[in-house]
Structure formats: structure tokens, C-alpha cells
């Protein structure tokens, strides 16, 4: 509802009103340099700036500082709320009370959803455990896919020690399980009504279906399966008791917690259930697996990586064929703020990882989601390096290792010399024992060679291996041994015959020297081996990092060129680069991590294994990945904290005006109050009109951008998609043995599932794949529209709004400054700034909503294609008998060739409708929020002009609130940050 009805505007035709209108309703375009251009007051405000430190806090850019200030707010608000609750209810009191309570709820930490994807066996679960600083929060197994369900990890706010670890397990609904069972049945049953012979072959798609049914119903045999039906299985008491429910688990220790939840998320853990309908123990039990029935597991725990609002979602690999779980995974990806892709380091080195992991459809969707710059690659298992790989990478480190090899070589030469002398003296001992006179051999002085340390004079950049290097350098050089040998060796005259005691003394000395040198050399060899391993691991990681970055940038460049070609072939210039791809490569986060080495360095592994090449936890790169997870939340936290503090400032300003009016008021006559309120009302009507005009202009521009940059491309994109579709459809069936297409049974299974199927040949989507050429011509324009053009017009709206707020305040200040105190006017000036920031926050919020809606819209192409293809899918699924594969291929191809343009044209309709509806909702929501802001402005001016209702109860309450407010500023002083780690 508008603040003031338009009829009331027509009633007041005074010259004063027209003068006000001239100030507020100026529609000339405004050019502003700053994001929120708000003029300063024309007169110096009172020296009492009540919330100056809070205002300063809002300008901070440190997430830590802002988070500290934000944590102060709820306590202040709760104190105010208690006072308000003690005052007799009234319009003002109720409004303030609700505003304060609403603001307390806004003090929560915003979440940043990070989706973690990766193939089976790539180390995804181990990485997540390491991030959580646990060894078994989610199960791991080196030989099989262990995590079979979607697992969400988030911060646990509970301080209850018994709830240190909390899990919620959400099961799929009965309808979803019946849908799954129906298709599993159809996959298994042959034309004779019996289970297909391939049911025992785990490498066949039929075998996969049979394994899934047996997981939940282990008592079933192929014969009993043929004699039952979907309804009977779905109504199984043990299964039915779980469907549609959410189970909760909590434990004080990780060991207890792991035992409690592993049955839900480990693909091989079994639950013992009763086979009786009433659950009574009659000795009949079975061991069933739960993972096919679970939609998602939500785990809450305390760990550094999650402490700033990150939610880490472990998504199953793309081979997961559970329809309900696949839909949930798709929704998670849709709302992800970042995507982490995990692959083993060996695959990253050997394959074009960025290209293979990011298929065309995935990369395309990243662009539509605006997530192209929110990708992180994680190369796991860097500790897994074979001796052959060490030899491969050792050649790249020869220069660095040369001095170390010289050192150990010199020690070897020294030990060899000692062996030579030992043989000499042992020979002398033998001769002396027979009575022969023997004399000490003449020793030649060894020429001193430059030490390895002395030769290493060239300065070099300090590296991560320096700690190991310093350990190696700490060992004495061979020359030191020679010096000690020549200094400490027993001395005998050349002409003096040797006694048995002389010889024993020399032998003991030489053996002692050899033992010391040999032990030293052995330890040195171990250190050098560790250094070599560390450097080879680092070299391999750096190679993988560079390879992934360049490969990702190249893939994005190819995608951009494809989009340009699809958008306007005549104007496409392959030499023109739409972005700096070198910068794309440099900025792509790539972490090469070892989860096991990190756990070992942190003392969590119950093993004596030492992971060579990792001297500290930091060398595993897990701490850096944890910091990256926290950093990914920083922008949202800063924005959210600033918005909360700004809202807090507005509430405190308004409460200050309301509670302190009697202290600062210069009394106005009733007639003056009436005139001033009429002026306020008319000015607010003018402001409302200006802001509505700005909203209309904003929405008009948004619709115009959508029309010109997206909708106008639909026709050419539809034509291109219809042209490409037949060749895409030809790839679906397997036309020859060993081909990549689907065999008949899998092709029909895909048709039964409305074109979507995931089997041993990998996932196929007959709806998504043909939409790729359709999206190809839209991708670049879509990205520009939602990452640049629409944010630009939203930003323009904030500037216009800020200027209009300031115009109104300047006008009212000119009328009131001779009648009220500067402190009160200064508070209102603070409100103007705060409201300008509130508009900015509001627009940012709408920007987030627009991002969410456009992500949904970009996914509407595929369901629309599925809807148009449903009849053909049904026909193909029901066909059987001789020649069925030939017939269903022809039916599919005929539909695509003849109806292609209509299919893809229909696919664009829901997208267009959703985006237009988005603009309409933006308009209605903006107008509603503006009306609320104007109502609060009216309240502030009314409190200033009219004064409060000073009943005894109200007076005492206002005084109590005023005392709270007077103490607020000190709580935001910079000194409060002392001791805070910044």
C-alpha cells in the first residue's frame, strides 16, 4: 500500500506544497561518482555523535572485525527487547518490539554452499574428512565406492557435549521409492516375465538393478521376485517404516558417531531388521542396506573449515542412478556458490583432467550459473608416488640434488678409506701375533677439497624444501671427518715397533670412526631420500597445477568461441578474446593435497607408516584448502555483517529519537506541528513517486535487456538445435558390437525413465544432450546479461535512490533546523545514510534472488524437451517383439527430425516466462520494501516533530532504553578489538 493515498495529494494545493514538490520530485537525471552519493549536513552536528563508533564499524572491510562487531549486536537488542516487553503495549511499542526481534534473527551467519564432486575412488571422502579434521566422519574405502548418498557437512552451533556430532538422515518418500522400484522391475524382467539371465552379471545394467533390489530386500530370489510386485515390496514393513521419515543421531565422540551413522552412508553396511509386520522379535531377521532409500544425510560438527558458514556437500558420483537422489544433487548444484572438483594426482598428470572432468554440458551449465570463476580443482593422493615415478621426476631435480649427492659420495669415499686402513692394521695384527716385528704404515696427508657447504655460495630463493635442506646441511662434511681423523688418530713413530696394544688401540679407533661415519651416511641417505621424494612430489604437483590451469582456460576459450559462433556466425572472430584467458588460468585455485599425510602429521592415524616428502601439515596443502574454504565465505560474511550493522544503526537511531525527544525538544505549537507533518507527508508522497518511477525504469531496462540479449536469440538457437539433434540422437543406440551407444535393453530403460538413464556405459540424458546446441548460442549472452548488464542497472537504482533520500532530508532539515536540536537532525542525517545503505543491501538481496531464478530458468530447457518427448518415450518403452530395437530407433529419429523445431521452440517458452515473472516480482518486492522504508521515515519525523506519548510507564521505559543506547557506542570502540587475531 502507498504511504499516502493519491487523493490526499490533490487536497493540498498550497504554494508551499508546490515548493516542496519542486525539491523532491525533480526527475532530472542524476550523475554520481560514488556508489552511494549522500551529501553531508550543511551545519556541524552536535558534538554528541551517539553511535559514531558503530558508524565507523560499518565501514570496515575485515571479516574478522565485522564479525566481532556483529556479535555485539544481539546482546544490545535483547536488552532493548526486554525493556520494550515491560512497557504497556501500543502502536509504537509493538512496532519497535517486532523490529528488534526480527533484527535479532538476522544476526545468523550466512551460508556458502560448496559442492564437492568427483569420480569413484578419487579420494573425495578422504579430503572431506581431512577438511573436518576427522578421520572417519564420512566412510572411506580404497577398493570400492563407499559414500553412496549425498552428505552435507555444516557447522554445529550446539554447546551440548552430548551433541558434539549431530546427523539428520532424510529418507526418500514412498512415492519416490515406488517410482524407483517400477523402473528397476522393468529393467530386470524379460519378455517372459522372468528375471533376465543378465541379472547375475554385475557388469551389466540388469545386474546393477538386481544388486540394488537385493541391497534392500536381501531375502528375495529371482524366482520370488517374479512372483511379487512393486506395491508389495514398497509396503514391506521394514522399508515402509523408513520411507518419508528423518532419523536423528547425536554422539559426544567421533567413534560413537561413526558407528551410529555408517549404516546410513556406507554402501556395504547393513541394518538388522525384523521380518514381521509388527516388528516383534520372532527370530526372523534380515540384513538390509539403507543407501538406496536415503535422500540426504546432514551432519553438523565443529571444525575450522566450517566455522565461517561454509556448507560442504559431498555429492555422489555421476554414476548414481537413484532418481530422487539425483534430483536432490541437481538442486544442490543449482544453489552452490562454489564447485570443488576432486581427482587423483595421477589422473591429473596423465589426463586432460579439466577437459574430461568438465564435459561440455557441465561447463555450459557453469556459465549459465555464473560459476565459471567459482571452480576449484583438488588433486588428491599426492602421497601416492611409486618408485618409478620418483625416477621420472628425479631427472627434473638433478641440479638441486647435485650437492647432496656429492656429500654422500664423499662420505662413501671416507668409509672406503677407513676400510682400507682397517685391512692394513688387521694384517699387521695377524703378523704381530706370530712374533714378526711390525711398524706403523706411512700415512699420506689427504689434500683438502672444498667442502660442499663452502661450494654452495650462490644465493637462492627459499623453498618449501629448505627445512629438509637445512637438516641435510647439518650433517658434517667428509672433510670434517678427515680433519678429525688426522687430529685424533693414535700416533706411532716410524721406527718404533708396534705392540699388540698399539694395534688394538688403532683398530678400535678406526672401527669407531667407521661406525660413526656409516651411521651418519645412512641417516643422510634417508634425509636425502625424503628430500628427493618431497621435491618430486612438489614437481609433480606443480606440473599438475599448470596443466589443469591451462587446460581449464583453453576449455573456457573454446566454449566462448562456440558461443560466439552460435550467437552470430557472420561476426564471429576466432582471434577476438572475450576475456583474459591467461588471467583465468592464473586465478584458478588448484590444490594438490595428501589427506593421509595430513592426518598422520596431525597424529590421527593409528599406523606406524611414515609419509616421506611431507615434513609439516602445511606441505600436505590441507591447511591451505581449509583456509580457502573459509576465504570463500568471506565476501558473503562481510556483506551480511555490514547489512546487519547498518540495520542495527537504523533501529538504534530511531529508538534514540523516540526515547530522547523530551531531552532535546524545542516545543512547537500545535499549528506548527500540523504544518510540519503536512510537509513531511507531502514530501514522502513525492519521494514515493520518484522511487516508484525509478523502480519502473529499473524493471523496464531489465526486460529490455532480456529481450534484446536473450529472447531475440531464441529463434536462431532453436534452428541450430533442431539441425544438430538428429546427429546427437544417432549416438544413443549401440549400432555395432563394442560401440559407445546403449544396447536395446538400456535404450528401452532410458525411454521408461523419460530419457534419463545411468548404467555401466555412464549417464545418458536424451533431453539434456539435444539442449546443448540450443544453449550454445545463448551462453555468452546469458553470462553477460546476468553478470554485467542487469547488475549495472541495479547499481544505477541505488544511486538514484540515495540522492532522492538526501533531497527529502535536505528539504526537511531546512524547515526544522531552527526548531529542533542539531543532535536530532544529526540522527536523521545518519538515518539517510543508513537507508541509502539499506537500499544497497536490498538490491544485493534482489541480485541474489535474480541469480537463483536465472539458474532455475536455465534448467527449464531440459524439462520442457522431456515433456514434448514423453509420448515418443512411452511408445518406445512399450514396444517389444522381433525388430524392436530397429523400430524404436526409427521412431525416436522420426520424432526428432520432424518435430525438432517445435520441441526446442517449446523449450524456450518456460524460460521466457520465468525471466519475465522475475522482473515483475522484482518490481512488486521493491515497491513493498520502499513502502516499509517510507513508513519508518514518517515515524522518525513524527517522533521528532510531534513528540512521544509521555505516560508514566512509557516515560520510564524510554528512559531505560535511553540509558542502554548511551552505553552502545563504547561497545564498538576500536579498543574492543584488542587481542583479536586480525
TrEMBL record:
Annotated Pfam families: DUF7605 (PF24564), Dynamin_N (PF00350)
UniProt-listed InterPro entries: DUF7605 (IPR056024), Dynamin_N (IPR045063), P-loop_NTPase (IPR027417)
Dynamin N-terminal domain: residues covered: 114-367
Ranges where the DUF7605 domain occurs: 739-899
Residue segments, region Disordered: 1-21
PANTHER family in the record: NUCLEAR GTPASE, GERMINAL CENTER-ASSOCIATED, TANDEM DUPLICATE 3 (PTHR36681)
Protein name: Uu.00g002940.m01.CDS01
Protein species of origin: Anthostomella pinea
Amino acid at each position: 500500500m502507498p504511504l499516502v493515498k493519491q487523493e490526499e495529494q490533490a487536497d493540498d494545493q498550497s504554494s508551499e506544497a508546490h515548493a516542496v514538490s519542486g525539491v523532491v520530485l525533480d526527475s532530472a537525471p542524476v550523475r554520481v561518482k560514488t556508489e552511494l552519493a549522500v551529501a553531508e549536513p550543511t551545519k556541524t552536528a552536535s558534538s554528541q555523535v551517539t553511535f559514531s563508533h558503530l558508524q565507523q564499524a560499518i565501514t570496515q572491510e575485515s571479516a574478522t572485525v565485522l564479525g566481532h562487531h556483529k556479535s555485539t549486536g544481539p546482546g544490545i537488542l535483547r536488552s532493548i527487547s526486554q525493556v520494550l516487553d515491560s512497557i504497556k503495549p501500543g502502536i509504537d511499542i509493538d512496532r519497535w518490539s517486532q523490529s528488534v526481534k526480527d533484527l535479532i534473527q538476522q544476526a545468523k551467519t550466512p551460508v556458502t554452499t560448496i559442492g564437492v564432486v568427483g569420480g569413484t575412488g578419487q579420494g573425495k571422502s578422504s579430503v572431506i574428512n581431512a577438511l573436518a579434521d576427522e578421520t572417519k566422519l564420512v566412510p572411506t574405502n580404497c577398493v570400492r565406492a563407499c559414500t553412496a548418498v549425498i552428505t552435507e557437512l555444516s557447522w554445529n552451533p550446539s554447546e551440548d557435549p552430548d551433541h558434539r556430532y549431530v546427523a539428520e538422515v532424510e529418507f526418500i518418500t514412498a512415492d519416490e521409492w515406488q517410482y524407483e522400484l517400477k523402473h528397476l522391475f522393468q529393467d530386470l524382467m524379460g519378455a517372459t516375465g522372468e528375471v533376465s539371465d543378465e541379472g547375475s552379471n554385475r557388469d551389466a545394467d540388469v545386474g546393477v538393478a538386481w544388486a540394488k533390489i537385493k541391497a534392500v530386500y536381501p531375502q528375495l530370489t529371482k524366482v520370488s521376485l517374479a512372483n511379487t510386485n512393486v506395491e508389495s515390496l514398497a509396503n514391506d514393513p521394514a522399508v515402509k517404516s523408513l520411507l518419508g521419515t528423518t532419523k536423528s543421531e547425536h554422539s559426544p565422540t567421533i567413534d560413537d558417531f561413526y558407528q551410529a551413522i555408517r549404516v546410513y552412508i556406507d554402501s556395504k553396511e547393513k541394518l538388522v531388521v525384523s521380518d514381521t509386520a509388527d516388528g516383534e522379535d520372532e527370530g526372523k531377521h534380515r540384513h538390509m542396506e539403507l543407501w538406496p532409500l536415503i535422500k540426504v544425510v546432514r551432519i553438523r560438527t565443529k571444525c575450522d573449515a566450517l566455522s565461517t558458514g561454509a556448507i560442504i556437500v559431498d555429492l555422489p558420483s555421476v554414476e548414481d542412478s537413484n532418481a530422487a537422489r539425483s534430483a536432490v544433487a541437481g538442486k544442490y548444484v543449482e544453489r552452490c556458490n562454489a564447485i570443488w572438483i576432486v581427482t587423483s594426482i595421477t589422473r591429473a598428470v596423465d589426463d586432460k583432467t579439466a577437459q574430461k572432468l568438465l564435459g561440455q554440458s557441465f561447463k555450459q551449465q557453469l556459465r549459465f550459473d555464473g560459476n565459471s570463476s567459482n571452480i576449484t580443482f583438488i588433486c588428491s593422493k599426492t602421497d601416492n608416488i611409486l618408485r618409478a615415478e620418483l625416477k621420472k621426476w628425479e631427472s627434473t631435480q638433478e641440479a638441486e640434488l647435485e650437492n647432496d649427492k656429492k656429500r654422500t659420495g664423499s662420505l662413501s669415499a671416507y668409509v672406503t678409506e677407513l676400510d682400507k686402513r682397517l685391512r692394513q692394521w688387521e694384517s699387521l695384527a695377524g703378523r704381530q701375533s706370530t712374533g714378526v716385528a711390525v711398524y706403523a704404515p706411512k700415512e699420506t696427508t689427504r689434500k683438502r677439497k672444498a667442502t660442499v657447504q663452502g661450494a654452495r655460495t650462490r644465493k637462492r630463493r627459499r623453498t618449501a624444501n629448505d627445512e629438509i635442506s637445512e637438516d641435510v646441511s647439518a650433517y658434517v662434511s667428509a672433510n670434517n671427518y678427515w680433519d678429525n681423523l688426522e687430529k685424533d688418530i693414535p700416533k706411532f713413530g716410524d721406527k718404533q715397533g708396534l705392540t699388540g696394544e698399539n694395534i688394538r688401540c688403532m683398530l678400535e679407533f678406526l672401527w669407531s670412526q667407521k661406525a660413526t661415519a656409516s651411521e651418519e651416511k645412512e641417516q643422510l641417505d634417508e634425509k636425502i631420500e625424503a628430500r628427493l621424494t618431497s621435491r618430486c612430489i612438489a614437481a609433480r604437483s606443480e606440473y599438475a597445477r599448470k596443466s589443469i590451469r591451462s587446460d581449464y582456460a583453453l576449455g573456457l576459450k573454446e566454449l566462448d568461441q562456440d558461443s560466439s559462433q552460435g550467437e552470430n556466425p557472420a561476426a564471429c572472430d576466432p582471434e577476438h578474446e572475450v576475456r583474459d584467458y591467461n588471467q583465468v588460468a592464473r586465478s584458478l585455485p588448484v590444490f594438490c593435497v595428501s589427506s593421509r599425510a595430513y592426518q598422520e602429521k596431525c597424529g590421527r592415524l593409528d599406523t606406524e607408516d611414515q609419509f616421506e616428502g611431507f615434513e609439516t601439515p602445511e606441505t600436505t596443502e590441507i591447511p591451505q584448502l581449509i583456509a580457502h574454504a573459509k576465504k570463500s565465505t568471506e565476501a558473503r560474511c562481510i556483506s551480511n555483517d555490514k547489512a546487519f550493522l547498518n540495520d542495527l544503526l537504523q533501529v538504534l537511531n530511531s529508538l534514540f529519537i523516540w526515547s530522547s525527544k523530551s531531552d532535546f525538544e524545542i516545543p512547537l505549537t500545535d499549528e506548527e506541528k500540523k504544518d510540519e507533518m503536512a510537509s513531511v507527508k507531502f514530501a514522502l508522497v513525492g519521494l514515493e513517486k520518484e522511487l516508484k518511477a525509478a523502480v519502473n525504469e529499473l524493471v523496464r531496462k531489465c526486460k529490455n535487456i532480456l529481450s534484446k540479449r536473450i529472447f531475440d536469440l531464441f529463434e536462431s538457437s532453436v534452428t541450430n538445435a533442431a539441425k544438430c539433434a538428429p546427429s546427437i540422437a544417432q549416438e544413443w543406440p549401440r549400432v555395432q558390437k563394442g560401440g559407445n551407444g546403449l544396447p536395446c535393453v538400456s535404450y528401452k530403460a532410458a525411454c521408461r525413465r523419460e530419457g534419463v538413464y545411468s548404467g555401466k556405459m555412464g549417464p545418458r540424458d536424451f533431453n539434456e544432450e539435444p539442449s546443448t546446441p540450443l544453449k550454445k548460442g545463448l551462453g555468452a549472452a546469458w553470462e553477460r546479461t546476468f553478470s554485467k548488464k542487469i547488475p549495472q542497472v541495479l547499481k544505477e537504482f541505488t544511486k538514484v535512490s540515495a540522492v532522492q533520500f538526501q533531497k527529502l532530508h535536505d528539504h526537511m532539515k531546512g524547515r526544522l533546523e531552527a526548531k529542533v536540536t542539531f543532535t536530532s537532525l544529526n540522527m536523521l542525517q545518519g538515518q539517510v545514510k543508513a537507508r541509502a545503505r539499506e537500499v544497497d543491501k536490498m538490491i544485493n538481496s534482489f541480485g541474489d534472488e535474480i541469480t537463483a531464478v536465472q539458474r532455475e530458468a536455465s534448467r527449464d530447457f531440459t524439462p520442457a524437451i522431456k515433456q514434448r518427448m514423453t509420448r515418443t518415450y512411452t511408445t518406445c518403452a512399450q514396444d517389444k517383439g522381433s525388430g524392436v530395437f530397429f523400430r524404436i530407433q526409427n521412431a525416436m529419429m522420426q520424432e526428432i527430425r520432424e518435430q525438432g523445431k517445435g520441441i526446442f521452440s517449446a523449450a524456450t517458452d518456460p524460460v521466457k516466462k520465468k525471466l519475465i515473472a522475475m522482473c515483475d516480482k522484482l518490481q512488486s518486492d521493491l515497491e513493498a520494501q520502499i513502502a516499509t522504508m517510507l513508513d519508518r521515515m514518517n515515524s522518525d519525523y513524527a517522533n521528532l516533530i510531534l513528540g512521544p506519548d509521555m505516560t508514566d510507564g512509557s516515560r520510564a521505559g524510554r528512559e531505560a532504553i535511553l540509558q542502554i543506547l548511551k552505553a552502545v557506542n563504547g561497545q564498538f570502540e576500536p579498543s574492543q578489538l584488542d587481542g583479536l587475531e586480525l
